[in-house]
Design a protein that fits this description.
heterodimer; A: 293 residues; alpha/beta; Rossmann fold; five-stranded parallel β-sheet; two-stranded antiparallel sheet; 9 helices; 7 strands; 11% strand; globular; B: 346 residues; 2 domains; seven-stranded mixed β-sheet; five-stranded mixed β-sheet; 12 helices; 14 strands
Chain lengths: 293, 346
Amino acid sequence: MAAGIRRRVLAHVLANNGGYLSQACSSAELLAALYASVLKLAPTDGPLHPPAIEAVPGPDAPRVSGGVFHGEPGPDLDRLIVSPAHYALVVYAALIEAGRLDEAALDQFNKDGSTVEMIGAEHSPGFETTTGSLAQALSTAGGIALGRRLKKETGRTFVFMSDGEFQEGQTWEAIQALAFYRLDTVRVVVDVNRAQCDGPMDSVMTIEPLATKLKAFGASVDSVDGHDIAALTSSLERPTGKPHFVLAYTDPARGVPLLNDRRPVLHYLRFTGPEERAEYQKFYDDVLIGATS
Amino acid sequence: MSAKTDVEIVSRPHVENFIRWSADKPEVVVLSADLTNSCEVGKWRDTYPERFFSMGMAEQNMLGFAAGLAREGFEPWLHTFAVFLYRRPLDQLQMSIAYPNLKVRLVGFLPGITTPGGVTHQAIDDVAVMRTIPNMTILETGDATEVESVLDVAHAIDGPVYIRMLRGEVPRLFPEPMRFNTARVLSVAGSSIEDPADLVVLTSGIETEEALRAIPALQDAGARVTHLHVSTLKPFTDPTVLTALRSARSGVITMENHLITGGLGSAVAEVMAENGIAAPLHRIGLPDTYAHGASQAYLLREYDLDAMSLVRTAEQALGRTFGIDAADLAPVRVAATHSSAKVEAL
């Protein structure tokens, strides 16, 4: 599944002359572990086709949730809240690989009138909340988990976060509240790719030692190789009695080593010209397609 | 007509009323940010500990938790000072709560200059900010009856609601409960273009009490004044308001415990412009200034928000003087600074 996520995202980036490729490289195994192994979700009726935008939520327009791609919610089932909404393309690719989203959906990516938005919102496939303004999902997930506890539900609430969000104060407010209310059904997996918009995180604003900080805030923490699906799965499943954070240390060029030439700034790939694009096309044809055919 | 002096003062009307009201509504939960007694929900917490959640001084996260609870079918009633609901966590308010149109109730205490806490505690621009937020409903309480009945009005709205709430010693001015998007008609002088009022006065919140001190004196002096009390500030589509505005011959006066930009005065200006109502509009409120820490009575005088300010503005609007002085007005109601109704100084 992870290879399929990378392949689909690179194909899309080639077709559109740009995109969030490094995020796919860093988080492919992480999303594969979630969708293929960890999340207990109801099935969908096959791969679903994403609806067009009808209206944004309002008095006469009920909310449309991209959570339908996770199947019917149930008290003993898991939920997944995606926090870094600019990972949308990677989430869509993962949903396609999981058989929950029609692969033609990517043709609607970033197209006018489509819910398959570039920065996912709550109507976008795989999204339940609107989190393009980063670091708000963890608080909302905490409220969801608290509400589920009040309703005696046993399912877990997973949150997928990016490491840059630990620069925001709200993240730490949320962690102290999760710990205060012992919301151990909240399980957070963080793509620690150490890259953000301006460049390497350590040059922008360092967040380390992240595990030490999280433990001091009352969470349980595992630091794992974010490309090791077995390690990710085992850590995500481990009951700890505390809000649990899995720090998935990842390589934002993993699987597409050409990206290393673009360091230190990896946030968004836009080809410098036909030559660079041709290099990526050749890599796609020779390595990604060649490897799977 | 002589000035009224027998206004009933209700001590902390929210405390018991909110407890009674919540008894048969298990979906109602309360979130607080370290201002529980200051927002009169300490006894609520002790009555319903299983649905009270202390969130600490962390409002951005509190709004997110409220959004999550609302998504799970609960109705969170956030109790804190108004400034901490929209200034510090405005992005969270917009993205986590307002965009998805969630049933979160933001109960904002200390509106405007009702606190001696100074600029950091005085919500003087909250209506202006909230009016620009899609899906948001804005309600403002002006007396004890509205503090009690605003709960039902807010509860019935399928979306986020912001309430300018009063606490402590609150006058009871109105016998009838608040109604959504329906102004109270407190005086009528003239009901049509053929039979116009000299002045149409629209007031909200604590300014209504000030207007009620001045309007009898104006009427005794011969001014024909229509007076409306507005408690729904968004939406602002009440036909009663439009009818009254159309009947204004010499001017319209708005009075609000808020900046004159963005609040009631601006909402009235928009309605007048959109409907081609050509009377001059006089807005009483804070004129592009912050306030500072002092008593409510002092600040009402200092910033020309009191009853005498309405008299002077009416004289200006009508181009005559009435010879009204402070002795002709209903007396100022002064709550004791350290009365038992005030749990804390702030």
